[in-house]
Amino acid sequence: MIDSVYGRPSAEGYRRPAAARKAAPHPGAFVVSDNPIGLKRIHHLNFWTGNAKQAAFYYRNAFGFSQIAFSGLESGIRDRASWVMRQGDATFVISSGLTQESPINDWVSKHGDGVRDIAFEVENADDAFREAVARGAAPEWEPRDVSDDHGTIRWGAVRTYGDTIHSLISNVDYDGPFLPGFVAKHVPGPDFGIETVDHVVGNVELGEMETWASWYAGVLGFERYISFDDKDISTEYSALMSIVMSDGSQRVKFPINEPAEGKKKSQIDEYLEFNGGPGVQHVAMLTKNIRRTVRSLRDAGVEFLQVPDTYYEALPGRVGDIDEEFGSLAELGVLVDRDEEGYLLQLFTKPVQDRPTVFFELIQREGSRGFGKGNFKALFEAIEREQAARGNL
Q1: Per-residue pLDDT averaged across 291-295, rounded?
Q2: Between residues 17 and 88, which one has the greater pLDDT?
Q3: Distance between CA atoms of 316 and 266, rounded to whole angstroms?
Q4: Which is nearest to 220 in space by CA: 131, 88, 144, 91?
Q5: 120 pairs with which residues across the strands?
Q6: pLDDT, mean over the chain
Q7: Which of 153, 245, 236, 240 is nearest to 204 (CA)?
Q8: SS3 string of 306-334?
Q9: Which pLDDT belongs to residue 291?
Q10: Cα dihedral: 364, 365, 368, 374 (round 10)
Q11: Crossing angle for the helix pair 376-390 and 267-275, nearest 10 degrees?
């Protein structure tokens, strides 16, 4: 059954993040291949939480996701409950432990609610796992059949930064509602226009960014898409550095952040402290109409970071002509940036749980493939205001 795989990983996986860090390859250790593990797409993000039922209700009503499947006591799974939420191509699995022995409870006690698994669909899970481990990935569990009345998948997993993993999933003959062990349980959400996951950002310790960038290059065949140093992302008080890694199709993008030296504690330092180490900082979700999406989320109670009005006074001169009305962007607090390929619109939520850890980004791309470099200073200052209010700057 599925609980022998997904709900009950090996103890080494989530209790020994240092082992995963030691497994990361040295820069240049492997010959880069276009797609060594046969990566097809992000299959889903699995959030481990304290109360999955309530969290699923939140994502349905606050973010517009529809519930499509369920796994738990009623479906024969004894150690956890999982709710599958989907909007467009973005799929979240929200899980919580049902027993005292559940590793989910230990994980949540350490990290709070957060992303445990960035799961991949691959051509062949056995080949992907074998190649990833040969290239330096630490195994979480070896591929095995996971089956129910709807058929079978192959499912393995490897460790990445902190206590985060990458599942490697390939379909054998499965035709059920989500994965074996899940039953259809559809509850429609309002659909706020979210289309897919644009990128997933990880925070790691000082000095580990290059290590993990090399891991994604050497193990998964990703390329360095763009990088930012402390001159790009800094204020008077704090700074960070970031490398964006991407697969060859540029559909799967993973920025990796580390703190940089500053006068006060950076947002990455705050995250690492309250998360108990490295992990997923935020998930960026793509929309074709950010104004509609943001307005809907605001009406549903989602809180967003705010930049000062002076940001919008300088905006027309900085980004030039765009197919947007500046007044409505200012009203909603939407940020704008331009590069040589076009422009983008973006906005960031405040943390969506009590710990100042995981938050979300909404992004609309009009040609730009960047990450809003021109907004970094204003965004960082907005985050610092929130840190100061929490007593963490």
Answers
A1: 97
A2: 88
A3: 30
A4: 131
A5: 42, 168
A6: 88
A7: 240
A8: CCCCHHHHHHHHHHCCCCCCHHHHHHHCC
A9: 96
A10: -10
A11: 50
159, two tokens: 């460790």
Cα–Cα distance measured from residue 56 to residue 53, given in angstroms and rounded to the nearest whole number: 5
Q: Which two tokens stand for residue 150?
A: 């709807």
In this structure, are residues 150 and 131 in contact, taking their beta carbons and an 8 Å threshold? no
pLDDT value of position 236? 61
pLDDT for res 230: 59
Neighbours of 352 (CB within 10 A): 21
Query: DSSP class of residue 296?
Result: H
Evaluated on CA atoms 294, 295, 298, 299, the torsion sign reads negative
Instruction: Kindly report the backbone phi and psi dihedral angles of residue 59, in degrees, each rounded to the nearest multiple of 5, phi listed first.
Output: -70, -30
Cβ neighbourhood burial of 97 (10 Å; 0-12, 13-18, 19+): buried
- Using alpha carbons only, give the angle 343, 345, 347 rounded to the nearest 5 degrees: 150
Residues, the chain: 393
Q: Does residue 379 register a pLDDT over 70?
A: no
Averaged pLDDT for residues 142-164: 97
pLDDT band at 264 (very low <50, low <70, confident <90, very high): low
Burial classification of residue 215, based on how many CB atoms lie within 10 Å of its CB (0-12 exposed, 13-18 middle, 19 or more buried) = buried
Q: Tell me the mean pLDDT in the region 137-162.
A: 97
Q: Given this model, what pLDDT does residue 262 score?
A: 67
Instruction: Please name the residues in contact with 126: beta carbons below 8 A apart, sequence gap of 6 or more.
Output: 143, 154, 156, 170
State yes or no: pLDDT of 244 exceeds 60: yes
What is the structure's pLDDT at 235? Answer: 61
Output the pLDDT for position 133.
98
For 191-248, strand residue ranges (E) read 194-203, 223-228, 239-246
H/E run at residue 70: strand 66-71
Q: DSSP 3-state assignment of 248?
A: coil
